[in-house]
Sequence to fold (597 residues):
Amino acid sequence: MKIFVVRYVIKQMTSLKSDLKPDLKIDVKRYRKVRRFFAKAFLHGIWWDIILNRPFLRIFRMPPLPRWRAIARQYRSLAVEMGGVLIKLGQFLSIRVDILPTEITSELSGLQDEVPPAKSEAVIAQIEADFGCPLCEIFEQFSSEPLGAASLAQAHLAEIRQSSQIKSKSYRKQVVVKVLRPGIDVLVETDLKAIALAFRWLRYYKPISRRVDLDWLSQEFTVVTRKELDFEAEGRNAEQLAHDLADDDSVYLPEIYWEYSASRTLTMENVAYIKIGDLGGIEAAGISRAEVADKLYNVYMKQVFETHFVHVDPHPGNLFVRPLPHPDEISAGISDFAPGDFAPYQAGRPFQLVFVDFGMAVSIPERLRAALREYAVGIGTHDAHKVVQSLVSAGTLLEGADLKRLEEAHEALFKHLWGVQVGKMRDVALKEAKSFLKEYKDVIYEAPLQFQADLLFVMRAVGILSGMAANLDPDFDVWSKTVPYAERYAKEEFLRNREHWLKEAVTLGQLLLKMPNRLDHLVTQAEQGKLTVQTGFSPDARKSVQRLEESVIRLGWMILTAAFLISGVHLYVGGKDFGGLMMILAGLAFLWGMRKG
Fold:
């Protein structure tokens, strides 16, 4: 089987015929380079993690985490060099904490989707082809220098003419024009083809394939990537979020100008106010950083648990803080600040959160909504049982997962991390990591979790938000912020299920009425010697059993060592050739036994 896999990968490395359709328009040179990297990584895994992961060969095997961290670092360099979908894949894999160790995801999480811009001539030509007319007939003014360039698209400042309701006059309005990079369709299809091949190879690696549907994952990544090329869908996402958050005056969404948009061009209102990562700019305007962190957290709680439509790409480049006029300034005739305007310091200045880049937005399906609320209630009430049950409800646990051990692990996390401020959580987690890993190494090693892509994108967004909240307010306490939501959701759940609880109360009353007869039956079974009791290990007992198991394994290897040693001495004294070999085997068995024990 292993030889078949190696031959299959080598064949795929040396031939394009098996995985490319003649009519598919791709960059063959790029495809081969990407495929070569994936093939080398796959062969690396076969050699070190399959072939050398055998008894008596493991002594030659290098530790896996440093090796795979180096592979992740090499991939990061390749993605930065080539751009395109490779950066998106790195960002996508950085959230797969359910199948990849944190040492690898941390290497990939820093990938920034920033590349040199495309030539302005090619961009302008593409816009003119999109609209079928010269650029000057579309925009009043267009800046050839981009505001920013990413792997799939870049943004330019422009001006359009808008009608004013005042005296029927028109005026120029500044907008941002987002344009797909010329030729990006070929690049995307090339990378997706190579990535799909890599996912097919991964089917042969059981530690991953048994925990995740790789065909589904490959398809999901392809769908998400192609959605980012669909500017119409992105514009609809922006309008959906604006509708969902319309009742919140502290949130602002840019207007989409459909008459100035086309298949590869999306024009929206310019909302480049103060970047959320510009802490000095926020403070200079008199805006409270702690209030910004609170508002950011509250807006996402609403998206996840109430509107169920989530902007899942909230990195610092996609969020701005819009300063609003202070009451004193309004009295002085200042009604608004335009993007780029200086807002002088006014203590307690009101503000709005502004979102941009809506290519990645997730609608949370019905099957996950109740589970997410149950999870929030469990976190807010320190209820490890409810947290684990929410994972069961969401379908994120593998079959046969030890629910009791998962509850114990969550209880330990609550004990050590509850109340720790986000800014200090990493230090506390690192401090507690050694004892936690020792106590729950079985849970961590088995990693009985499998997350659907829609839930993973939400988790990624929450993870990014935690970092931004800590940056804005080092004293931000996510636990205390969660408790009010947990209490509210628990109350709503009780009210929704009030009839169910009444039925349960009636059932409990009926059971109490039957209790005397059942107790009598129980005593009768005990008298007849037919009473059986099912028990489970306590944490202390479980550790004792683990130590006993390790001792038994060590004893077995020591017995084997003694057998090899006695046989070797006997053969050596008798002048036999195999005496030295048996002594070497005795030494290896001793070393292996000490390692396994």
Summary: The CA atoms of residues 94 and 106 lie 7 Å apart.
